[in-house]
């Protein structure tokens, strides 16, 4: 009986391998020549219309300015001079096809930045050294966490000076409008959210438990030298403004991750509140302009 069963299964398998099935092939991915990228200057300096044409597939466009487009067309805005690489991925039946287009922007166009968010964040064109922000350590909720369904730190809101001695309250982040530069001075050490430990280790940081610096908790302190010539950008989505940093560069004090963007909840001349949303959690950091006293 056992032998019959084995023969029966073998017969079914052999029958399933028909000539028709053997001729089934997976289609090839599109070739680069089938992906056409058109970049057309508009009547406004440094603003371009971007269009992608393909015979089939799902198109995703990265404009190299912090903006990503799901679809075949959009507008690219580059306030600052430089070389930008538009990256297009097309997912078709045969796989992913990539193509790039380079845009050379000859001059800055600060009129594109005539926006309260840019001016509050950097101090505007007259602030040649930019504007420096520090954690609002004297206020309740200067760091916190809550559900993604809320926009306040419902689950934990740090009391004033809650992380004293843990290498966060001396950190300074400076945004400069010209050239979109950001300078981050952490004094050699950064306070690191527990969920972001691996991201900091990946940067080459030496990470210690925060208990080494004071009362125990679930976070860490990292010995980490910040870099130079870091940059930032702002994107706007559905009426909201987000601050973006290239992977491996700046971050807002205690939450570092290569994939996050920082939603601006509120901003003024003296105060800035940002929110980071990750699966299942939303983290908060509140900052004030350096030297400003509430």
Description:
The protein is mostly beta strands. The protein has two domains: 32-109, Immunoglobulin-like (Sandwich); 115-289, Lipocalin, CATH 2.40.128. The protein contains four helices and 21 strands. The protein has helices at 2-16, 19-22, 116-122, 197-202, and strands at 36-41, 47-53, 58-62, 68-70, 73-77, 82-92, 95-105, 131-135, 143-146, 156-157, 172-176, 181-185, 189-192, 206-209, 220-223, 230-231, 233-237, 240-244, 262-267, 271-278, 281-289. Strands 8, 9, 10, 11, 12, 16, 17, 18, 19, 20 and 21 form an eleven-stranded antiparallel β-sheet that branches. A four-stranded antiparallel β-sheet has the order 4-3-6-7, with no helix packed on it. It has a three-stranded antiparallel β-sheet with strand order 1-2-5, with no helix packed on it. The model is unreliable at 1-19 (pLDDT under 50).
Short description:
The protein is mainly β and 294 residues long.
Strand residues, percent: 35-45%
Instruction: Look at the structure and give the mean pLDDT.
Output: 86
Domain count, please report it: 2
Structural class: mainly beta
Strand count, sense and barrel status of the largest sheet are: 11 strands, antiparallel
Shape: globular
Distance between the termini: 87 Å
Radius of gyration: 25 Å
Low-pLDDT windows of residues: 1-19
Number of helices: 4
Per CATH, the class of the largest domain reads Mainly Beta
CATH topology of the largest domain: Lipocalin
What is the helical fraction, as a range of percent?
10-25%
Tally of strands: 21
CATH architecture of the largest domain: Beta Barrel
Order of helices and strands: HHEEEEEEEHEEEEEEHEEEEEEEE
């Amino acid at each position: 009986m056992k032998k019959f069963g084995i023969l029966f299964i073998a017969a079914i398998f052999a029958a399933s391998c028909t000539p028709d099935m053997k001729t089934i092939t997976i289609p090839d991915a599109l070739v680069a020549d089938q992906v056409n990228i058109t970049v057309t200057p508009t009547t406004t300096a440094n603003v371009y219309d971007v269009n992608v044409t393909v015979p089939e597939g799902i198109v995703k466009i990265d404009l190299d300015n912090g903006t990503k487009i799901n679809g075949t067309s959009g507008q690219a805005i580059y306030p600052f001079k430089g070389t930008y690489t538009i990256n297009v991925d097309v997912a078709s039946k045969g796989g992913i096809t990539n193509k790039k287009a380079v845009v050379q922007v000859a001059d800055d166009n600060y009129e594109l930045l005539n926006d309260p968010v840019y001016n509050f964040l950097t101090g505007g064109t007259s602030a040649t050294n930019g504007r420096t922000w520090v954690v609002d350590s004297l206020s309740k909720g200067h760091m916190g966490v809550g559900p993604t369904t809320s926009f306040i730190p419902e689950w934990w809101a740090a009391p004033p000076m809650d992380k004293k001695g843990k290498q966060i309250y001396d950190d300074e982040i400076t945004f400069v409008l010209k050239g979109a530069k950001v300078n981050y001075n952490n004094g050699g050490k950064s306070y690191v959210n527990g969920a972001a430990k691996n991201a900091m280790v990946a940067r080459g940081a030496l990470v210690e438990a925060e208990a080494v610096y004071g009362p125990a908790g679930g976070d860490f302190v990292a010995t980490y030298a910040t870099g130079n010539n870091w940059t930032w950008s702002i994107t706007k989505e559905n009426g909201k403004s987000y601050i973006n940093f290239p992977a491996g560069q700046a971050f807002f004090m205690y939450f570092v991750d290569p994939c996050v963007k920082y939603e601006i909840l509120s901003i003024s001349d003296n105060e800035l509140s940002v929110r980071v949303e990750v699966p299942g959690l939303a983290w908060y950091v509140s900052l004030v302009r350096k030297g400003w006293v509430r």
